[in-house]
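ok here's the first one, seq then struct tokens
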Amino acid sequence: MLEPAELRNKFNVNRPTREQLLGYLLDALDEHERSEIERRLVEDEECRVELKCLKAALEPLEALRDEDCDPPFDLAERTSALVFEHADAVAAAAPQLARAGVGGPMPPVAGRWSMADMVVAIGVCAVAALLFFPVISNSRYAAHVTACQNNLRQIGYAVADYSDKVGGGFFPGASSRGNRAFAGIYAPILVEGGYLTDPRVVICPSSHLLQRRAVFRLPTLDEIDLASSTQIVALQDRAGGTYGYSLGAVVDGRYEPPRNLGRNYFALMSDRPLLYGEPVVNAPHWGRGLNLLYEDGHVAFGEAQLEYADQDDPFRNRRGLVEAGVDENDAVIGQSVASPFRFISQGIRPAQD
């Protein structure tokens, strides 16, 4: 006499449907349903084989886990249209195939999928993509934002250490003229002074430069000092990595690097700020926002299109220019290549370089 388990297998009693197996793979079942499926998988080898086939069919989705983009907005519509297009074509051809003697049922062949199977698989892939893409994208986005904040904190510790030990209360900053007159000079100063041990932290994880992070190299101060007029722009662009840095300020008619006053409102660094008129697609973190490092060491994330009607704009001085602030409370962050002065104002005395 057959045992109960053998009887269930023989007569296909309570065997999980394909939809239930898909729900099991996608973790879409409740605890009771999941336990029942797992029990049936232990007893029924055919169920295990079918589950293995379904899992193999969904494997192409795994290759998309490392993608940093959202799914096309019309993915579901285009997938549905494709399925219906092929379904209509098969239905239209069925009478001709039947008359030709090739439309009858096919004997079961291991590993062969019917048209209905393909329609189900395509539909499942489309639904899974719509579910997984936003989750994966948002997860990677949040991870990049957090890693970027950690980078800025490390740099914040380094500039604070510099100000205490050799800066006389000032952070490292640009010169008012010459080859060192650019915002990104802070990084070579910190690295050569031993305040920043890993120069790769100047690269934001969401930057295109991340692909070259392993071979990224900051220019040395000597390279910058000795660079010709045709070489200096490329060195200045690379020196600050993918972050923007304070351009200093004019205090009592004299240009100074940023002073360390421990202010919680004074923005010292940020993700690479966009040039005015530059498309948002060039922005870090896929244009969703920027991390800003403040003078007291805390980091905050802000939306990409910020309004500063009632506060200091960290990317322009009070004259609306991307250059040194008009006083020590006027924070201005520029890209690595930005100079403290687009136009040296009459009467401004540069700091002693």
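and now the second one, same deal
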Amino acid sequence: MNDKVLLVEKQDGVAVLTLNRPEVMNSFNFAMLHALKEQIDAIRFDQDIRVIIITGSGQKAFCAGADLKERADLNELQVKEFIFTIRNLFTSIEYLNKPVIAAINGVALGGGAELCLACDIRVAAMNASMGLTETRLAIIPGGGGTQRLPRLIGRGKAKELIFTGRRVDAREALQINLVNQICENNELLDECRKMAAMICETGPIAIEQAKYAINYGLETDLHTGLGIESNAYWVTIPTEDRLEGLAAFREKRKPVYKGK
């Protein structure tokens, strides 16, 4: 057993968080949830980190969901605590002030799929398999799956996948807009890093405000959403970065943004 349940690598403005319990397909136990929460909370205020990539250790699994062996030993109150913890963690990832990319390197089931749904962008390797399989255990998705999946792929398709508990492969996931992109297994992290590098070229405050406007605007009517967008835009106007962007365009050079 590996005692370090979460690996952290930070380089060039990107933090790669690797779920590290390959012997149990990177399934969630309390220790992993707490480790991931600690890192997300720290990264929120780390100005050197612009993008987060979350992936799984090994070649087989992103995350197979909750550790059912641990779950079998929990009483009803502890199960409620687990669900409360995982739901709040995924919400904090969804509303993190920085983009989060899921690098889906294999099986992503139950809570593993729900973690992917909480991320902003999903890139899947060709060997990826995704599903909200909880109904096959006589429970329902409890980490946001019943809410995020229909918002992403539509009500009818989400009901089909949740009611049947079936898995989809990478190609079908792309077809139904469950993932943004698919690639060969050995290219997954490189593709995610390329996307992260492109994001790192943009203005940090602009990205934060764009994510805020999208996340909160989509939960309202169009009129209110446009108001949210306007307020988010106003935040960018007095920034040094906006002036740097205009100057770089005028001088035909790459801008150097500082998040100010």
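notes on #2: The CA atoms of residues 190 and 196 lie 10 Å apart. The two ends are 44 Å apart (CA to CA).
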